[in-house]
């Protein structure tokens, strides 16, 4: 059974009231360590970003369709755009949740690693382990910074989308549609920048995972 599947299976079975230390201890008893959990959570965070990219792109497409619609198509186009906005908002929440989980296990892993280094009696082995920990932490900090930077670009975009959706909800007509077209180019640029930032974050995630697995 793949490690990620094992983690998902045991996680679903462990009802530990949010006690992370008890969770990690239980996982270790079945051969799944913090290192494995961290790699799995980084993968989850990466996948959530990929999903968010698709959702924000879809929301943009539906807004474009709304701006290009006319007559009796307005209401249908509005609800399609609204649905995509809500999906993008949910995807953004999932990204934040996944990144928080990465941070949680990273802190536990690095604390444990540092403590165990202190228990190594041979100086050369202790130094090698410390060097590896330092390298891993640097790679992790770089990845986390990239993740958080991409995450930070989502709320302003969602706010702009929400403003437009609420404005259109109360004034759904061709004149109102025309009045917000000027904001669309700004949204296009912002979403394009978000997708690029997420691509950078995904690349950093892949590099971090490669480093953890090699």
How does this model look, in words?
By secondary structure, the chain is mainly alpha-helical. The chain is 87% helix and 0% strand. It is elongated and about 80 Å long. The model is unreliable at 12-17 (pLDDT under 50).
Helical region count? 8
Q: What's the average pLDDT?
A: 89
Tell me the fraction of residues in β-strands, as a range. under 5%
Tell me the series of helices and strands, N- to C-terminal. HHHHHHHH
Secondary-structure-based class equals mainly alpha
Count of the separate structural domains: 2
- What is the makeup of the main sheet? none
How many individual β-strands?
A: 0
Which runs of at least 5 residues are low in confidence (pLDDT < 50)? 12-17
The value of Rg in angstroms is 22 Å
Distance between the termini: 20 Å
The gross shape turns out to be: elongated
Helical residues, percent: over 70%
Key terms:
214 residues, mainly alpha, 2 domains, 8 helices, 87% helix, elongated
């Amino acid at each position: 059974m793949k490690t990620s599947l094992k983690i998902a299976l045991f996680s679903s079975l462990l009802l530990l009231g949010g006690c992370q230390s008890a969770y990690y201890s239980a996982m270790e008893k079945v051969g799944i360590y913090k290192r494995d959990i961290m790699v799995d959570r980084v993968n989850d965070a990466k996948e959530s970003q990929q999903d968010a990219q698709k959702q924000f792109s879809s929301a943009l497409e539906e807004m474009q369709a709304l701006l290009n619609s006319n007559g009796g198509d307005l209401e249908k186009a509005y609800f399609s755009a609204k649905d995509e906005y809500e999906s993008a908002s949910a995807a953004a929440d999932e990204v934040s949740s996944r990144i928080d989980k990465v941070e949680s296990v990273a802190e536990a892993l690095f604390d444990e690693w540092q403590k165990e280094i202190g228990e190594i009696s041979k100086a050369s082995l202790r130094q090698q382990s410390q060097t590896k920990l330092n390298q891993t932490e640097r790679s992790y900090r770089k990845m986390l910074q990239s993740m958080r930077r991409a995450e930070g670009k989502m709320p302003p975009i969602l706010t702009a989308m929400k403003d437009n959706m609420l404005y259109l909800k109360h004034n759904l007509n061709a004149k109102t549609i025309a009045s917000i077209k000027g904001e669309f180019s700004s949204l296009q640029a912002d979403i394009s920048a978000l997708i690029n930032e997420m691509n950078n974050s995904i690349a950093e995630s892949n590099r971090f995972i490669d480093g953890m697995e090699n």
